[in-house]
């Protein structure tokens, strides 16, 4: 990793994400916040290079104005608005967070800081951020670009046009430098600067809501698959892994130091290489690390029993599958590269090994009609994962999906928050229909869960736990609610 005479020499940096959990009520209500992992990754490298690094962690803040006294106290030379590119919430490019970023830029300018921005939304709309006062926008993977940029600025170089992966303005004209090659040796980076995180604050929220403490990690960068609706402005269409030894070493330290017992692996695709998974499993076992892990994966990667065994032995307790649709026609239109048979096979196999299964489902993709919607609902009810996450197809710049529908887009082109679910383009049905569909499918799923739990308790197949009783009791609400929502959905589906 680079280290030269042009070191930070104590120059003060203030890192800040622009994502606020409190600005997204759906996420804040869950009370399961994660720290800005990508942010502290970049901060760690700057620490190593001799900069004086501080963090204003917006994830748990109430307002952007809280940065003002921090700026006055620290008087940093640079305010670096750097979001967690691993977290799917920042990839949504929500306008509530864009507004927060603009406010942070204004506070930074008032504090006479140079402003550097690195996040998905800025990469897509660098002109917008530069016009709001950002001095530089990092395009793509940020650590090495940021380091080279800071060294150039600290050396008082007249131009930064030689710094790859950058956008800036010269004479009121936006300039983009050459793309930066991706970082292939991820082990060359230092471990994230966890010392910058207020761990007790996160721990108390998790303990209160879930009874344990979970943190986020990433073992890889990028995704080699080409689902045509998936935006990858930061890490791109590649797949590079950290070594299992480095990953498990970090997990072991966090477990010992902070009592972390659960990890969410924020990789787009965890464990693409079966050999890597075996080495990861061996590292976990050799350290006798008693932890639970949640991952995201694809159905076609989860159809081999030996692979599932390795995941289970490594501590994987929950797998979220990008199922997306119960219609092969829709999956093919998405360029998903998976089949309904693989979704069924992987779900059954994971369930056989007592692994919790979550489905990501997506409605309103072009070409989807009521027939395909019913196929998706039917698949969900037939396979009954443990949980579901429902979204509406969301066209983001840089995707083939966006190119196909951009001529249909209205003035609104981004969601306000993660619960917005506006189609923003001409779908088969109205935006109101899809919002009602979202509510209906969730209630229908919970209704069937209640019936299954009631049957299992009656047959003696499940212990009478608090969770089981809650699910059974919810039948009183979901029975009439599903009926009412089904009627509303029918009315919205007719011209």
How are the SSEs placed, and which strands pair?
Layout: E1 12-16, H1 25-30, H2 37-48, E2 52-55, H3 67-74, E3 78-82, H4 88-91, H5 95-110, E4 114-118, H6 120-124, H7 126-131, E5 136-138, H8 143-154, E6 166-170, E7 173-176, H9 199-210, E8 214-217, E9 220-221, E10 240-241, H10 244-258, E11 262-265, H11 274-286, E12 292-297, H12 305-313, E13 316-324, H13 328-333, H14 340-352, E14 356-363, H15 370-383, E15 387-392, H16 400-405, H17 431-458, H18 466-473, H19 475-493
What's this model, at a glance?
The chain is an alpha/beta fold and 495 residues long.
Key features?
Rossmann fold, 19 helices, pyruvate-formate lyase- activating enzyme, single chain, 495 residues, globular, seven-stranded mixed sheet, alpha/beta, six-stranded parallel sheet
Task: Work out the radius of gyration.
Answer: 23 Å
The CATH architecture of the largest domain would be Alpha-Beta Horseshoe
Task: Summarize model confidence as the mean pLDDT.
Answer: 96
β-sheet strand percentage: 5-15%
